[in-house]
Amino acid sequence: MDQKNLVIAIALSIAILLGFQFSSRSASAARSGGAGANRPSKPTPAGAPASGGSPSAAPGAAAPSLPSAAGSVPAAESRDVALGKSPRVRINTPQLHGSIALVGGRIDDLTLAQYHETVDPKSPEIVLLSPPGAASPYFVDLGWAPADKGVAVPGEDTRWTAAGGELTASNPVTLTWDKRRGAPLHPRDRRRRPIHVHGEADRREYRSGPVTLYPYSSVTRLGTPPSSTYYILFEGMIGDFNGTLKEIKYSGLKEGDPVSESSTGTWLGFTDKYWLTALVPPQDQTVKGHFTHTLIDRTDRYQADFLDGEKIVAPGGTAETSSRLFAGPKVVKLLDRYRDQFGVTRFDDAVDWGWFWFLTKPIFMALDFFYGVIVISASRSCC
Question: Where are the beta strands (DSSP E) in the chain?
């Protein structure tokens, strides 16, 4: 009888917490006009900036926008056919498989080596990123936006040269673009992009100048992805700005009406039920993040991106920038490790802990600990 009463008490407590959380989230979404909700986050550490300013612009000019979206969407075809339209550099790590397109330099082919479509370990790996032309294009692009439109920069049709073999956990890959023709103002432009499993650094060199450039990173999805119907689980566009987590549903982002915010120490991207693709700019710099929704050939195009502050390249000089990309499962210990190792502010908030995060996360950690103990004990006893 005592055990039965305990079970009933636990069930009622959970029902009350879930009911209160649901009503609170609904009220918050209504107050925000349906465009999204700002989930309360953990207190801002002492010394952290309360708000960030816009990235500095070139003297006498406004900061440029990111390259515009393509005018059309490639016809849908098989993923293998879409991948075969560009030479590629292979990605091969214990956690990730895939490739980088040498035409455009996009990261648009990524599967999760430790996660499969079914419980059968021989079933296909979970596909996270896919190239344009595939059934559900989902890709990452990084580049430079010039203050002067006459300055040549790589684009979606740029052919890169790779050096270093395949990308592994211990072997970075360098992509190089060397333009010697077609840019009358700056006839010699060399760009090197060393890519590591945990980050990317860009180097720019102009033989004439000075040149003002703005680094950017973007993650794009074509088509509205299916979402689960769990009201306690958020799926959509997500980012942390100035200590507040911003969540925007696909249906809440109006076409042609972007959501923009400047912040120091931010991250932003897309969250699914189990997976996350997030751009992580340098955490000590102020960047301007954007969430946009456009319609191309009657296809929804969603993009999360950030524009960094200006980089001025002196004649014969160089400029460098670095950023990070997280693409993988929302494993709490992994997110916590990245938060601590790379200083990514509140990265664990990518998991929807709800309004009672101060209770739900410790409870989860306790359950996860005991689960690990039980599994280890069971494996030892049966083997």
Answer: 37-39, 88-92, 96-101, 107-116, 125-129, 138-146, 161-163, 173-179, 189-196, 199-206, 211-222, 236-241, 244-248, 259-264, 267-271, 275-280, 286-296, 299-307, 311-313, 318-329
Ranking 74-88, 286-300, 350-364 by mean pLDDT, the lowest is: 350-364
Residue closest to 173 by CA, chosen among 140, 137, 200, 212: 200
pTM: 0.79
For 112-137, write each residue's pLDDT tens digit. Answer: 999 999 999 999 999 999 999 998 99
Q: What tokens appear for 135 in the block?
A: 């059934």
Give dist(CA 240, CA 243) in Å, integer: 6
Question: CB burial class (10 A; 0-12, 13-18, 19+) of residue 336?
Answer: middle
With CA atoms as reference, report the closest residue to 41 among 365, 349, 352: 349
